[in-house]
Structures are given as C-alpha cells and as structure tokens.
Amino acid sequence: MEGIMTYRDAGLSLDVIGALLQADGASAPVVLERHLQKVNEEITRLRQQQHVIAQLLGDAQAAKESFNDQGAVDCATRLHRIERRKNAKMACGIREDVA
C-alpha cells in the first residue's frame, strides 16, 4: 500500500501504478524517468505562462517573485524593469544620457 501511495504522490495514474505493480521491477525506472520528463516539460510550460502573465500585468516585482528560483527569468525581469524606466523617462522628456 505504501508503494501505491508513493507512486500517487509522484503523480502517476492508477492505471500506470497497476501496470508497474504487475510488471517486473526493471520497468519502474523507465516509467518514472518518462514521467519526470513530462513533469519537467509541464513546469517549463507553466513558467513560460507565468512570465507572459507577469508581463501582461506590467508588474516587474510580481514577475521577480514568481520566478525567484530561476535565474534566467530574474535577469529577464531586471531587463523588463530597466525598459520600463527608460519608457517612463522618455514619457517625461528625460534624455537617457543625462539621467
């Protein structure tokens, strides 16, 4: 029963768990690696959605907090903040080389 709960915690469906329990132990690593790849792809897709939503909201701080554990996105957030400052300066008639 503990094995079933652990597989469920890993996000495997009951069908997949049933097949794993009936198969030899050698198939578990293959199934788990495939599932891990799918989870990683889903995380990547969700991070991209987060980034787009943060950009749509125009809130660089929210973007930074959303992507705090992903350095590349933190860099993108900083660049976005710099771009917003430049746009604000231009709107106020402040030249970039003076400020």
From TrEMBL:
Q: Where is the signal peptide?
A: none
Please state every residue range assigned to the domain named Transcription regulator MerR DNA binding.
4-55
Recorded protein name is: Transcription regulator MerR DNA binding domain-containing protein
The record's section on Pfam families has: MerR-DNA-bind
Superkingdom to which the source organism belongs: Bacteria
SUPFAM superfamilies, from UniProt? Putative DNA-binding domain
